[in-house]
Prior knowledge:
There is one protein chain. Helices cover 75% and strands 0% of the residues. The protein is an all-alpha fold. It has one domain (1-259). It starts with a helix and ends in an 11-residue tail after the last helix.
Amino acid sequence: MVEKIKRSTSIWITLNLVFFFAMLGINYLGSTGFFNGMGQKDVSDKYTTLLTPAGFAFSIWGVIYTLILISLIYFFVKRKEIMISQLINEISPLFILSCILNMGWIIAFSYEKVGLSTLFILGMVVVILLIVEKIYKSREEIPYTLTGIAFTLYGAWVFIASILNVAIFLVQQNWGGFGIPDSVWAMIMIIVAIVLTLSYLLLYKNAVFPISLAWAFWGIYNSYSSGSIKSSMDEVIQTMLLIGIGIFIVAIIITFIKNKFAIFPKSNA
Length: 269
């Protein structure tokens, strides 16, 4: 039985690496405009929203993908440990699915199929958070810090990216917003992002989750402060973004302390 699990683990690790590097390849091609002659930034610039972060904010993708690669290497090194082997077998189908959805998202977005890309990225949110949940449930059996940080940052960043994707889709469709000004909708979405993030934090007590949101809010704030985005309620939106960042930082600190300086709480917490 143990040997069967180990053989299965080796296969999953190989597949994980294949799909991960395929995903990186599609991301690279997408960024160069290989698909449809337009990169993700080109499409994003074409359909400007009031929630688009400054360009530097997207550098977090490099951090996320690096941490995931290190996690995959860690899994490879520790694959013979039975508890880690079991976790690999549990999350690998989800991880491969997340890679497929990621590639679909990049290609659909590049071809300006923003509605389809929104479905892909919403699927990514669900799948990646399911991976985080499985790591969360295994926190007493394995060292989870590296994988916990990697996939939590990934899931949280894709979550905020999905909100931006929805906003871009609505701009593309010339949605009238029921007569409500764009700036008001931007504020509503900021509030929704804060509420959903805090709800997730209360449910799972994952101290890392708000980090990606705080980074995204800082990126959006910089778009306003630099003049890249202009609206009739600039100052109000910027204030809300700074308040949101403050809320996230306080929530991170409090959760981290309550978790006894760990990402996740103990099982009996």
